[in-house]
Amino acid sequence: MMRQVKHALFPVALVLFAALGPFVLEPYDLVNLSAFSAMAIAALGLAFVWGTLGILNLGHSVFFGLGAYAYAIAVSNLGDSTLAVLIGIAMPVAFSLVLGYFLFFSRLGDVYLGVITLCVTLIFYSFMTSTADPSFHIGPVPLGGFNGITAVPSLNMPGDPQAFLSTEATFSICLLSLAGAYILLSFLRSSDAGRIMTAIRESELRSELLGYDIRFYKLVGFAVSAAIAGLGGALYTAVMGYVSPNVFDLPQASQFVLWVIAGGLGAFVGPVVASFGFQLLSSQLGANQVFNTELIFGATIILFVMLVPQGLQPMLLGLSSLKFPNRFGILRRKEKPA
Amino acid sequence: MSGPPILATRGLVKRFGGVAAVDGVDLVVNAGEIRCLIGPNGAGKSTLFKCLTHQHQPTSGHVLFEGRDLQGLATHRIARLGIAIKNQIPSIYANLDVRENIRLAGLRRGLEKRQLDRVVELTLDEIGFNERLASQPAATLSHAHRQWCELGMLLASSPRIALLDEPTAGMTREEMLKTVDIIKRLNASATVIVVEHDLEFIARLAQRVTVLHRGKVLVEDTMDKIEANEIVRDIYLGRKKEATHAER
Ligand SMILES: Nc1ncnc2c1ncn2[C@@H]1O[C@H](COP(=O)(O)OP(=O)(O)O)[C@@H](O)[C@H]1O
Ligand SMILES: [Mg+2]
Q1: Where do the TM regions start and end (chain A) (predicted)?
Q2: Has residue A282 been placed in a domain?
Q3: Predicted pLDDT of residue B239
């Protein structure tokens, strides 16, 4: 019972923020926080697939980017955003199933898997940058090369494409979506399927010997992470009003990884908090131009790995209970049949 | 009671490069048996077990489970048929607590929640784990307790046949005796094939013993006869003779 209360705390806080934020924040901040939430949603997808299932997906941004582009193309063609968001979820899921099938059924090692997914997102990046020619278009929507797709319609009332949602309503939807993603993934993680995924992270051999088809569970987990990332990408595009190839690039890919490491591998709240923190930092640094943002991020990730290898959330929990073992340190080697 | 034996191999071969670790093994094990598999180090016992569960793909030959050829089946499919294995190297979920380890083993059976809970508690009881041990991460267990934790996982998975590779390695005599009890419980519903070196352990459990030597079945008989067998004494029990050979 206490545990359930503790678990409910975070989503309840998000829901309260979604309800009260519009009354106390400026529109500029609301837009920023909406975008941060969209990014945080995508980060949760990685926190799940890496923290629960042990799949280090260095190219998580490919699902985020596919969701972002799919939304932009669909909403510009269809006019209605509700279906476009669903398409923004479905596209990366379909892609993850194809990619995952090759990755998991060929039984690649973990490192190769991370490298290949990273390459895949970079391939999307270079492809999208080379679509400046007007012949690259889907329906009336040009892909736009480096500039991407601009003037993407924002969210509208379901079924009424003319009734665009206000900045306030969009903010609430983004935060509620974040709460929803968190609740969904928390339930999944504590379900039987989630516990089997955790078991697979702990020992693939033992899981196989018990009769679990590890390729199947990995594929399912991969697709779930893609769905969540796609939702994040679609909302991000809806909030920003444009999408560019940068959603696939290396900085984007590494940011998701950074947030999960900083927040704590195996945790959900930590990565969300970390993603907000780093995005806030980056928007502040970007505004004053004094520091090199990439340098700061690079230094931060090294500091985290060295000083707080288990991430923020486990560390804070550890400080409060003083007996939480370091079970999810990112440098902990996977259980090998020694 | 006729019909096919629960497990049989036909001309099973496993080569690593030029070495035939398993070299044409024909093994027949009947339902309900406790069969002991003995043989000097490197005889191919562990490799044979891994071939049975397709952790290694056999180079040639067949494995028949209740008359059904296992060829082409993935390891998890073989497990689902009811073939459980404890490898020589322990394999448990080190960072999960013992109860979760046992539960994950039982979960595959598709029991409803209350029934699964009952199986888990019963199993913890059978391997003699109290509440403190049950809620401990498996990594913090002593060596013997880890072996029992893994045996508990096999118990909870309710297999038709259990393959146990050196389950008492490194145990004291007292711990070995407790392991004998656990294996007897396993045998109440499952056929057991066990690789062991400990003669007392074998005497307490096995009806028949199969001796493996250089990848081949040397002889198969009751323990008394095996102990009296000159060739077996030479290659396995008679270390002295081997030593004098080596000196020359
Ligand atoms: N993965 C492997 N690769 C190459 N050779 C192996 C491998 N596993 C076992 N062997 C060899 O096969 C033979 C039988 O080993 P093993 O089955 O472990 O014997 P036992 O369990 O009876 O001690 C040994 O010569 C060993 O070196
Ligand atoms: Mg061995």
Answers
A1: 35-55, 62-79, 85-104, 111-128, 169-188, 216-236, 256-278, 290-312
A2: no
A3: 52
- Whether residues A209 and B137 touch (CB distance < 8 A) is answered with no
Give the Å distance between the CA of B42 and the centre of ligand 2: 7
The answer to whether residue A199 neighbours chain B at the CB level (below 8 Å) is yes
Cβ within 8 Å of residue A335, ≥6 positions away: A202, A203, B93, B94, B95
Strands A137-138 and B19-29, by their bridges, are unpaired
A12-16, A262-266, A272-276, B73-77, range with the lowest pLDDT: A262-266
Ligand 1 pocket mutation pick from B12, B19, B22, B235 by most atoms within 8 angstroms of CB: B19
**Tokens coding A146:** 């480096």
Interface pTM, i.e. ipTM: 0.92
Alpha helices in B108-222 (DSSP H): 113-126, 131-134, 143-156, 173-187, 199-205
Which chain B residue is nearest to residue A326, measuring alpha carbons?
A: B95
In tens, the pLDDT along A230-285 reads 999 999 999 999 999 999 999 899 999 999 988 888 889 999 999 999 898 888 77
Please give the DSSP secondary-structure letter assigned to residue A322.
Answer: S
* Atom from ligand 1 closest to the CA of residue B48: 17
A190 within some domain: yes
Residue A98 lies in a domain: yes
Beta B216-221 vs B68-69: how paired, if at all?
A: unpaired
**Residue with CA closest to ligand 1 atom 9:** B47
Cβ neighbour number for residue A276 with a 10 Å cutoff? 19
Q: Residue A163 is part of which domain span?
A: 29-249
* Paired tokens of B28: 């027949």
Taking the Cβ of residue B79 and every Cβ of chain A, the question of whether any pair is shorter than 8 Å is answered with yes
* Phi, psi for residue B97 in degrees, rounded to 5: -75, 165
Q: How many domains does chain A have?
A: 1
Residue in B76, B93, B96 nearest the CB of A208: B76
A310 located within any domain? no
**Cα-atom radius of gyration of chain A, to the nearest Å?**
20
**CA-nearest residue, atom 26 of ligand 1:** B42
Q: Which of residues 120-159 of B touch A (CB under 8 A)?
A: 137, 153, 157
